[in-house]
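hey so u asked for the seq, here:
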Amino acid sequence: MHRTLRHCAGLFALVSSLAAVAVPALAAPPTLAACDAGFETVLAAAPGPAPEARAVWLDGRHLRWPGVAPVGRFSLVHSREGRLQVTPGQAVAGADTALALSPRDQPLPPASAQRFKWVGAGVTLSVQGTDVARLRELQRGQWWVVREDDQGLHRWDSNT
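ran it, structure tokens below
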């Protein structure tokens, strides 16, 4: 009797698991409208237009912002949800994180200078030593390089 109950229980578990796998196959086929739709889906639209991407990463720690003088405070601002709002003359809004960037005083190594000669003259910025490890986590989300004045008001920005 126990053997029969165990076989029935096992058979029931097998049939239940097969039914669970087969149910998605019975779902309605996609519509023609779904086929004609774009491939992208916007999960969270940015609150405003993004600035032109002018800053260029040179390596995992340095970036160059062509046409910009090394005047003011520079930072890499980040928003996990893509909510950065940057308006000239106002403080940056919507940032979850801001990493300070330092203007680099030394020239680039010759190999890097040759590789990135197309970027043009401008300020070369460095991510602080302790913040380099955080860059990987910040790749998920929105980030801008901003230049602020001494009062913390935005003066210029760039995507990277």
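The helical segments are 2-22, 32-36, 110-115, 135-138. The longest strand covers residues 73-79.
lmk if thats what u needed
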